[in-house]
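User: quick one, sequence for these tokens?
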């Protein structure tokens, strides 16, 4: 099942609205967030912390780690 949403984010003094979708599976879920035209997958690891699942496009155009940390913080607040 999929749910579409917008994730408001303030990054480097700029307000951004990222488009995303929540995809649920049997006992887990993943967030798919579009950043600069690239869709990245965020999921929880074994310690229940969010991580970015490496994709081919992620390696080609490295996304700023600080931006990824801000997105993870926003997802943490949203998932709480």
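Assistant:
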């Amino acid at each position: 099942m999929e749910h579409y949403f917008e994730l408001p984010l303030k990054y480097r003094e700029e307000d951004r609205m990222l488009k995303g979708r929540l995809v649920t599976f049997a006992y887990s879920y993943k967030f798919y967030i579009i950043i600069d035209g690239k869709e990245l997958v965020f999921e929880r690891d074994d310690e229940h912390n969010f991580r970015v699942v490496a994709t081919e496009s992620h390696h080609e155009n490295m996304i700023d780690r600080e931006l990824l940390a801000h997105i993870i913080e926003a997802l943490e607040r949203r998932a709480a």
